Amino acid sequence: MTPSAIALVPLQGMEWMAQGVQSYLQTICRDYPCEIFSVELPRFATGDGKAVLQNSIRGKDAYIFVDVGNYSVKYNIFGHENALSPDDHFQNLVRTISAIGGKADRINVIAPLLYSARQDRRVARESLDCAVALQHLETIGVSNVMSFDLHDSRVQNATPFMGFDNLMPTYQTIKALCRNYNDLIFDEDHMVVVSPDFGGISRNFAYANELGIDLGMFYKRRNVQKVQDGKNPVELHKYIGPDVSGKDVLIIDDIIASGESMLDSALKIKQFGAKRIFVGVTFGFFTGGTEKFDAAYRDGILEAVFVTNASYRSKAVTQAPWYREVNLLKYISFYIYSVHTGSSVSTLLDPHTKIEELIRGYEAQRQTMK
Predict the structure, then answer these.
(1) How far is it, in rounded angstroms, from Cα 170 to Cα 270?
(2) pTM above 0.90, yes or no
């Protein structure tokens, strides 16, 4: 069966991503028409909204782009300006699927930041927001969902009959690191990967394994009897792992929200004699602002923070001297091409060979510069 035309449908705040992906797709899959479809999402004065497609999408393979973390999009409600919350973005996604009305050949959701991904399991009497949202998408006709660096990939078990792909930006982050620094030495004598907590150990293990270097971690003991700002406060933050003295350190995490734990990890590592500290994060929200990261950079604690363009980043973040961007547009484009043509995405999910080639080329170039 010949694949249908590709329809890229960006929701508010994702127009730039759809345009970048279209540019790549026009090179990657020239045999299939690729068009951006506009969807209007007007709001009434009461705050109610609707979705209106500007063109017919009948018979096309639709890819809807949504960024539930983009708080820069605003609307008026009862005369007041209000930022779109993750709930608002998700409801706009549902509205758009409803506007398509089953006319598309297939509906795929490109949600680099998965809605309610941090509420992926039940502890005591609480909601299972992410699972409920995924089941709702399956019910209204979504065939596939793509996200990056899930808080817990097991949440996809909520919809076993809907396609779900959890992509990791490992190759893209290492590539950005190599492009920005030409003096890195990837061996156990010169570099260490450190997980900021036990929950991120598998993510950091992947980097340590790919780079062939040691892995350390921080242990957090929380006071489960108290709740501050929606979470249990940390009572103990202890490093466990190899010596970092005189070595470059790479700390990987999925999200920087307030960033307090990340900065605490970096400070302790620096006190242990680390040479340079590089942070890699998939989603950089910096909900408390960038001032503390600016100070850590000025004080020589942080060398750089590598942040993907998977979700919205404020100007304060992108213009910070420590900010380095990790571009995921090409990665997303190849994913869409693979899904559209029915090709395997296994090489995208496991980029081991590409990372090996990248490191060999980087080390060869570094030798020629000596």
Answers:
(1) 24
(2) yes
